[in-house]
Amino acid sequence: MKPATRNIVIFALIVLTCGFVGIAVDQVLVPPSRMEGLGVLIWLIGPLVASLLLRAFGGDGWRDIGLGLGQSPYWPAYLAAVLIPFATTLLVLGPALGFGAVMAACLPVEPKRFWPSLASPSPGRRSRTSSRSSPGAVISRRGSTRFRCGRSSAGP
Questions:
Q1: In what order do the strands lie in the sheet with 127-128?
Q2: Whole-angstrom Cα distance, residue 85 to residue 8?
Q3: Would you state the pLDDT for residue 11?
Q4: Is 123 among the domain residues?
Q5: Beta strand segments in 34-149, E
Q6: Which of 25, 35, 66, 125 has its CA 20 to 30 A from that of 78?
Q7: Residue 51 domain-assigned?
Q8: Mean pLDDT by 10 residues, the chain (156 residues)
Q9: What pLDDT does 98 receive?
Q10: Residue 6: alpha-carbon gap to chain centroid
Q11: Domain region containing 22
Q12: CA torsion 122→124→125→130, rounded to 10°?
């Protein structure tokens, strides 16, 4: 058997085994969510560990690992692959935050830490709560009803 074929078989066996070991670990430890347990970490890190071990001990070597971006003529494509998700997020969330379609308090990350102007609403966009509507609704001065993101403002 050629060394390359042997290493592919070893890699596949290690990765498949890591998946089953991850399932077993999750069944023993019972994580709060299916994708938050230690078993998922084992499943995700398994291919990296297998490839590093095969490069170190399986004879694959480190020469063709492909970490030198300066040598590749495709570095603009790699740069675009990294930057396009960030640009798309800014293109969608920027105007949505500006027009009030999305409330900054409902985002999973606190943008106020990075964008201080979101800390207080502008004078034209202040809103008041109404007792006539549902408890989560906020009536703006323009008369439209917007709903809060589900966080309760009342204490325990």
A1: 127-128, 137-140, 145-147
A2: 32
A3: 94
A4: no
A5: 127-128, 137-140, 145-147
A6: 35
A7: yes
A8: 90 93 90 84 92 87 70 82 94 86 68 61 50 48 51 48
A9: 83
A10: 35
A11: 3-65
A12: 130
- What is d(CA 94, CA 29) in angstroms, rounded to the nearest whole number? 41
**Which residue's structure tokens are 């480190």?**
62
Residue 37 burial (10 A CB sphere; 0-12, 13-18, 19+): buried
Q: Structural domain tally of the chain? A: 1
Helices and strands (DSSP H and E) totals, the chain: 3, 3
Among 125, 146, 124, which Cα is nearest to 134's?
A: 146
- With tokens 């004879």, the residue in question is 59
Whether pTM > 0.90 for this model: the answer is no
- 100 is a domain residue: no
| Predicted pLDDT at 15 | 92
Q: Name the residue among 136, 84, 142 with its Cα closest to residue 105.
A: 136
Domain presence at residue 109: no
Distance in angstroms (rounded) separating the CA atoms of residues 29 and 109: 29
